[in-house]
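Support case: user asked for a sample of complex input and structure output to validate their parser. Sending the pair below.
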Amino acid sequence: MISSIKTVAVCGAGGTMGAGIAIVAARAGFSTICFDTATASLDRAAKQTEGFFAKSVERGKISAPDKDAVMARLSRTTKLDDLAAADLVIEAVFEDLSVKKDLLGKLGKVCPEPTIFASNTSTLSITEIASGSGRDDRVVGLHFCLPAQLMKLIEVSPGINTSDATLNAAWAWCEAAGQLPVKTQDKPGFILNALLVPFNNDAIRAVEAGVASPADVDTAIKLALGYKMGPLELIDLVGLDTQVRLCEAFYPVTLDPRAAAPPLLTRMVAAGRLGRKSGRGFYAYDTGKMFGG
Amino acid sequence: MGYSIVANGESRSFPNGDAFLAGTTDKADVVIYLGAELVADDSKAAILVELGTESLGRHTGEASGEEGSNVLGFARYRNGSDAPSKLVELVRQPRTKDSAIAAAKAVLEAAGLTVVVCADQAGRIIDRLVRPKYNAALRFLDEGLATAKDMDLTCRLGLGYADGPIERVERGGLAHHHDVTKALFDVFATPAYAPARRAIVAKQREKKT
């Protein structure tokens, strides 16, 4: 299927995920508008993007002229009105329903009728996000994996009112962007987080219950199942506070006890043990070298 | 440090032909029971009992949280009829002697295995963590969240797993998954461990044939 989308806008392009999505779009030949409310964030993301492509040139993955062409396809703005030129707007803003609904409501007034809105939410309902847009038949979930510029997979989720035409157009765009779409229902966490968040909580509960040390839990999972990272290593990487936020997003919706934040997790966050970013989580990172905590 | 083996039938951890079975010595400090009834012997550095879904306490008896001796449980992780992995879950009790753990680790690690130590709790590490995940994936399949192929693909590409949950649990045997989750459910009595519908069906069909 050929994508009819020519211009893509990314909201929240000053963030890690948004910047990665912008790279995916521009690299695939789409004119890409990077939108964020803060110029400094956009500037920082632009530098990171420049650095990413400089490395790609060094490694021979892209030629210098091609890199220049990609960079030329990227534009930056802090004015929402500039997104009127987009055929597809992908939002990757803060994971908060009211923030996303508010954004889509504003975009609904700025963008022409045919423009499709996509949400990169990992936990929220596409249907609920779409409900404030004034065009809920043209809103779809496109959940990229982190880091978006390297990961091929996109979870594509139609909301209750998403039209087939919107779903097909979004699907075609994913393929045109060189990504691999998989279809999921609009359910909490789609596939990835619905499986991962409770699993990671279970690993924390096992440590809390004295089943084994974090290091032994991670070793067992990696060796037995061939996972690249153990669950506790992964939580340390994404941040224990982030895991709490994921639980807060999931549990009230699913009422699944496995999705509730384990007491040990909330205690560790209260103690400032947030994982790699704070130097200590289930492991300590004082010397930059990981060892058992 | 040498080991001897007391076997009764084929072991899941060390199936017939496994090199470990040929490494025994006459004067062994460690005795490994594979399917045979445990005989206590305090003179040994460690005694290892291969476990299925049962607790080590079934073999040793328990004493209000004060149990522990030179006897340890173990299971080498293996999914269905896949070759056994390098991972051995070594099961200890609250008062298990540190010297027994060290002796057991020495013997197993000398054979090229990786040992993790865990408490005598249902499911040890692996089954306790992965069985609820398989149950969830099987339920998602019933509920139409995504196709089995897409769920597996998503886990491989999005999470870097070697394989997806559906293909893995099916390869391991849905009837076997039923047996493991039923044993876990008997202990924890939480829905996460209740055998998934597809596992129940597989078990019913296994009985039929």
